[in-house]
Design brief:
Elements (H helix, E strand, L loop, with lengths): L1 H101 L1
């Protein structure tokens, strides 16, 4: 009878050991899957961030080109006005000199 009890205890210990090993295997499997899922999610987030960065850079390039184009147009317009002003003043100066000489 005592040997029957010892046998049952040993069998229960073996089942407990097997259950523990199975739990350890399942935990390792779950952890590995979680790591894979996390890596996949992070890769997706990185791709999304890369796309956003490219979009932002494209918008910035476009805006910079727009600003430069406007600045060049404004600069050309100012140069044109300065040339016209200078030419007008030059003509006036020549007329003043001629009138001083002829008088």
């Amino acid at each position: 009878m005592a040997s029957e009890q010892v046998k049952k205890v040993l069998e229960a210990e073996e089942r407990a050991r097997q259950a523990e090993q199975e739990a350890i295997r399942k935990a390792a499997s779950i952890r590995a899957r979680a790591e894979e899922d996390a890596a996949s999610i992070m890769a997706g987030k990185k791709d999304e961030a890369d796309k956003q960065a490219k979009y932002i850079l494209a918008k910035a390039d476009s805006k910079a080109k727009e600003i430069l184009d406007k600045a060049y147009a404004d600069s050309r317009e100012q140069c044109k006005k300065l040339r016209e002003d200078t030419a007008g003043r030059w003509d006036k100066a020549v007329q003043v000199v001629i009138s001083c000489i002829t008088e």
